[in-house]
Structure formats: structure tokens, C-alpha cells
Amino acid sequence: MAVRRLLHPVRYSICFALAALAAACTRAPLRGALAVTDDWGRQVALPAAAHRIVSLAPATTELVFALGLGARLVGRTHWCDYPAAARAVADLGNGIGPNVEAVAAQRPDLVLLYASAVNRPALARFEALGIPTAAIRVDLAADVRRAARLIAAAAGEGSSADTLLSGFDAALDAERRRSATGAARRVRVYVDVESNPPITVGGGSYLSEILAAAGAENVFADITQSSAPVSLETIVARDPDAILVLTSDPTRTPDLTGRPGWRSVRAVREHRVIPVDGSLFGRPSPRMPEAVHDLAIRLAALGPR
Amino acid sequence: MKRLPPRTFALLLAAAWIAAGLIGLAVGGSRLGPADVLAALGGEGSESARAIVWSLRLPRVALGFLVGGVLAVAGAALQALVRNPLADPYLLGLSGGSGLGAVIAIAVGLESAWALPAAAFVGALVAIAVVYRLALVAGSALDSRILLLAGVVVGAFAGALVSGILAVADATGVRSAMLWLMGGLGGVGWAGVAALAAYSAPALAVLAREARSLNLLALGEEPARYLGADVGRSKRRVYVAASLLTAAAVASSGIIGFVGLAVPHAIRILRGHDHRGLLPSAFVLGGAFLVLADAVARTVVAPIELPVGVITALVGVPLFAVLLRRSARRAVS
Fold first, then answer.
1. H-run or E-run covering A74
2. Helical (H) or strand (E) element with A218
3. Which structural domain, as residue segments, surrounds residue A57?
4. The dihedral sign for the CA sequence B32, B35, B38, B43
5. Secondary structure of residue A37 in the 3-state scheme
6. Taking CB atoms and an 8 Å cutoff, what residues of chain B touch A225?
7. How many domains does chain A have?
8. Is there a domain that residue A84 lies in?
9. Residues A190 and A113 both lie in one domain
10. Contacting B residues, span 135-194, partner chain A, CB-CB under 8 Å
């Protein structure tokens, strides 16, 4: 009698729903073999070490490869161009406002999402689909270290982060020591991100960190934003020793004298212009020591003013 | 609010124009005192001060006077042409066309300093041609409603193409096109000022000659015809001249809003509706207003520079609201 009552369709379905609800409530945190805290302070629980990773930012894609986890990458953004092997991974389009369906189709067990407010809706949808998703912000050198640890931990390869980061720190320290013993005066540099209107980077930016490590300083270090438009007049007044131009083709020195008004800048007239690889300098990565080294050599080659 | 006597008004305008020029020269991202600026103007002082004043501030102020003036005149003429107080210089598909030109230039990788302005200019010309052709469908008299609709649909079409290109093109490059379009006076130097001046003079002259026809048009097309105006010819001339002026303004400094909309109305409120006085007054006040706005844009959060369109609206809208309020009170009382 009791059994029959229990098997009554309506009651049965209620019991089933309750059981499913209980399972849903307990599933993620309890069964998770791994848990990491992402850059929005969320606990991301993974049932097991991640083996199918989708990376939705060029900086995290580069980190996945640097950690030796490239073979686990099953999706990347259209803009992930480094290392060359990343090109072989499925292109899922944009990383800001990602195509949730295309990402889900890769059946990832970990999504690395760029921690931009625009991506909150996408995060909610990944969560609804039960895909473990970590929001990661990689803007500065310190973020590279934190993101490396997070990704390695989620992949169950914590030691690979230790190896990568000890090499990173040693190389960066060597560059800092070298630049500290070098020139007597810090070279004052203007960083050219865009030309019309002129846009440069502020004091709290990754490029300012590279400049500092290479023994130079940003003439717009007083700007607190990571980047901002400035007037040409202020550039003239601050009279930088050299101008760093972010470009996709660093073998060609751009001619800044052709820009209207830019001949007023002394460094432009004196051709103290250094083109640098935008993908190496513009994006925080484990290759930072390489960027610092490259810059230090080219600043030294420019000679004192 | 009482209208000012023409002489007083002219004197006030001249004073505003001179004051704007002096302020525009005196302030900027770098700290040069008035004495330094005067010395630099006379060819004295430090090399960097001379470079700042002669190569950066002077052309910038000159460009501000020209672009502000041109936009205000084009706005006044178009408002009269379509008999709609909401008309502004970009209304008839021009912002869409120039935006499309600029974004295409970036997307195909044109890198010269002049590529963006040239492409924006060509884009605006194409938009003008298409709108004009569409409007002619309804007859050679350029029906205002058809003209407005043609402008809006061409603008929408170009806007859709821009969004499409933005979605697929390299993000950083296209960002620079959008920033440029947001408007600024720092991008062209003396060569740009000279080109704009030489180009605008004939178009401004055409509009000045049509000022009487614009007065008649304001009465309505039928009355204008009875009073002897060749309505079709006047409308075609005004449309082409105002659009070509706006296209050149966009090419030299991107899309700067509010000047072309509000300055003509301010003049109508303060001085009256006669286009023979309205057009020159709008040229002077538009220029003075833009130069002042640019001076604020350069200094208010220096060393960061704000887009000048932000200031034209932030400063202009409250001023305009006061004017509207006073003129409405006068109309009621």
C-alpha cells in the first residue's frame, strides 16, 4: 500500500524533482575534485583536472601554451596569434562577447573567460550549461603570475606554474639588475599606441612596467588609467628622449615626420623612434623578460642624447 | 528675451571671436604663460614654446574657427532647406558615409596620415551623391521629406556596413578609426587648415548668395515661388554646398556634434531670422564656440585630452536650454 502510494505518478514526479534538486544543489561543490578562485572571487569547481580547455583571451592562450598545456586547448579566440601552434586550435571568434554556442560545441571542461563586465552574461550562460568557467584578468605582470597559477591548478599541473614562474622571475631580475647598473639617467619614453588622436599608456600599465624594468620611464606616468588620449602639445612639452611605436611590423621604422604637427616633437625630428612588436609588448605574457631585453638593447643602441 | 540691435550684436560677436582666439592660444596641455605665448608669436623664446605655438596651437585655433563656422553655416542652411529645426549638418547621411569611408580605410590597411580624412571625405561624397539621386526621384525640386528620408536610410545603410566591418575586422585598428571619427582638432596642422579654407570659400559664397532665397523658402515653397524664387535651383544649390562643406569639416576633424544644430538657433533667438545676417553670424559664433570648447577639452583633465564633441554638448546644452527658455517666455508674454 505504502509502495503503491509512493509510486503514484504525481508523487513520484515530485520525489524525482526533489531528488534532482538535491543532486543539483550538492553536485558542483561536493563532487569537485579541484577548486580554484578566479579573478572575480568566484569558487570554480572542476570534477577533475581540465583536459579540454577553451581560452577566450590571447593572454590566457599564450599562458596555456607556456605551461605546456597546449595539447589540451580545444578552442581560442580569433585574435590568439601566439604561439604559432595556437593557430591550429579551433577559432571560436571573439573573446569579449563570446559565441557561447560555439564554445559549448567544443565540450570544454574549463573555459578561461576574460574578466570584462561585458562578459558577465556569457559567464551566466556557461554556468547554466554546467561548464566550469574562470574569469581571468591579465593586465599587468602580476596578473600573469596569478593567472599562470590558476590555469596550472585547474589543469592539475601546479608544478608547471612553479617552473614557468621561477624562470620568469629569474629572467626579469637579471634584466632589472642589468638596467640598474647601466645608464646613469633613466631614458624618458613616449609610447605611441594610436596617432590621431594621440593615445598613450599611463603609469599603471603593463608597458610602463616593461619600461621601468628596462631602465626607462614613461613620460605620462602621471596618468593613472591604463591608456588615455593626450594632446600633441603635451608630448612636445614633455620632450621624450625616445618614442616607442607599437606596430605589427617592427622591422620597419615608421616615419612620424609625415604626421601633421609631429615634427614639433624633438624625438621625431631626431629620428629617435623605436618600432616594437605590438603582440610582444602590448599583451602581458610570460615573454615579458624578452620584451624588456629587446627594449633595453634598442634604447642602448639609440645612444645618449 | 529682447533681440539685440544689429550693431550691438555684431560687436558682441566680434568680441567673442577675439576672446575665443586669445584663450585658444593661451591655454593648452603644456603650461606656457601669456608672456611665453607672446614671445613665441614674435619668434622669440624657447624652441619648444615656438613649436607649440606656431605648429600646434595656431593651426588648431584656426581650424576650430573654420570648422565651427562651416558647421554652423551648413546647419543653418539645412534647417532652412528642410524647414525642420532638428536638422544638423550630419542629418542627410553624411556621418554614416564618412564613418564608412574611414572604417574601410583602416580595414584595408591604409596607413598614411592623410588616408583617414581622404577616405572619410570620399565616403561623405558618395553618401551625398546617393541621397541627392534618391531625392531627385521625386522631381528636381528636392522634396524636403524625400530628402530627409533618403538621408536617414543612406545613413542607416552605411551604419549597418560599419557595424558589420567592426564585427569582423582587427579590433585595435578599427578602434583608431572610431576615435578619429569622434572628433578632434589636433589632427591636420597647417596643410589641413589651408586646404579646408581654400575649399570652403566658394561653398560659403554660394550659400551667402542664396541667403535671400532661404528667407523666402522659410515662408514655404509655394509663397517662395510666388515671390519669384527659383525654388528647385536654390534648394539644389543649398543642399550641395552645405553637404560639401560638412564633408570637408568631417575630413579635417571628424564628427563634432551640437555646433551645427544649436548655433544657428542661438543666432535666430538673439538676432533674428534673416539669413543674410544669420549665415555670417553663425559662421563667427560657431567658430568662437568650437575654439572655446577645444580650449576646455585640452585643459580640463590635462594631460588627458577629451574629445571636443563631449565639451560642445556639455557646455552647449545648458546654454542652449537657457536661450530656449527665454525665447519661449518671450513668445508667451
1. strand A73-75
2. strand A216-218
3. 31-163
4. negative
5. strand
6. 304
7. 2
8. yes
9. no
10. 170-172, 175-176, 179-180, 184, 186-192
In this predicted structure, what is the pLDDT of residue B90? 86
pLDDT digits (tens, 9 = 90+) for B76-131: 999 988 888 888 888 888 888 988 998 888 788 776 777 888 898 999 999 999 99
> Chain A: residue nearest B50 by CA?
A264
Residues of chain A with Cβ-Cβ distance to B184 below 8 Å are 196-197
Answer for the pair A138, A206: CB distance below 8 angstroms, yes or no.
no
Q: Which grid coordinates are listed for B180?
A: 578619429
Domain match, A225 and A256 both: yes
Residue A195 contacts B where some CB pair is shorter than 8 Å: yes
| Beta-carbon separation of B29 and A223 below 8 A | no
- Could you tell me the pTM of the whole model? 0.81
Set of chain B residues whose Cβ sits within 8 Å of the Cβ of A266: 48
Residue that wins the pLDDT comparison between B303 and B264: B264
User: pLDDT per residue over A83-112, tens digit each?
Assistant: 999 999 999 988 888 999 899 999 999 999
* More reliable by pLDDT, B50 or A105: A105
B100: its cell numbers: 564608412
- Do residue B298 and residue A233 have CB atoms under 8 angstroms apart? yes
ipTM entry: 0.72
Which residues touch B17 (CB under 8 Å, ≥6 apart)?
B65, B284, B287, B288
Q: Is the pLDDT of residue A134 over 60?
A: yes
CATH number at residue A271: 3.40.50.1980
Would you say residue A182 has pLDDT above 70? no
Residues A239 and A192 in one domain: yes
Pick among 1.10.3470.10, 1.20.1730.10, 2.60.20.10, 1.10.3290.10: CATH of B6-332: 1.10.3470.10
Smallest CA–CA distance, residue A276 to chain B, in Å, is 16
Q: In this structure, which amino acid lies at residue B259?
A: V
Whether residue B187 and residue A197 make contact (CB cut-off 8 A), yes or no, is yes
Residue B211, amino acid: A
- Please state, for a pLDDT cut of 90, what percent of chain B lies above it: 34
**Looking at the complex, does the CB of residue B273 fall below 8 Å from at least one CB of chain A?**
no
